Amino acid sequence: MPVKVDESCMYTESHEWVRMEGEEAYAGITDFAQDNLSDVVYVELPSVGDTFEQSEAYGVVESVKAASDCYLPLAGEILEVNEELEVSPELVNEDPYGEGWFVKFRIEDSDQANDLMDPDTYQAYAEEAQEEGTY
After folding, report:
1. Confidence grade of residue 64 (pLDDT, cut at 50, 70, 90)
2. pTM for this prediction
3. What domain count does the chain have?
4. CB neighbour class for 24 (10 Å; exposed up to 12, middle 13-18, buried from 19)
5. Is 4 inside a domain boundary?
6. Which end of the chain has fewer CB atoms < 10 Å from its terminal CB, N or C?
7. Residue 135 has pLDDT above 80, yes or no
8. Which of 24, 17, 21 is closest to 92 using CA atoms?
9. pLDDT digit string, tens, across residues 121-134
């Protein structure tokens, strides 16, 4: 089954996405990640003003199957968190690249994007993980 990707995003090996908009970016978990987690029941997000290094854990997503750390794809300062997820965590399952975003942050070093996968590379990576049953 094909893995859904958003062509406007870059991706990490830990199945997070980032959509860069100038000096700022949005981040969340991929469709592949939410599908493997199953029904998301809770999302723990950082506070506005918190700063994180690239690939540092910034939050937790809990589902009926497991709890998983979420890692920030690029270093930065949290500008906004998706408060809708407090009352409607299922948005992560319904629209992981849209309404189910986790954080908006100020990018510290846009060159770090060179470490990320483009949509085609991530799709192949996720489909291989799907075939192998690894996540």
Report:
1. very high
2. 0.96
3. 1
4. middle
5. no
6. N
7. no
8. 17
9. 999 999 999 988 87
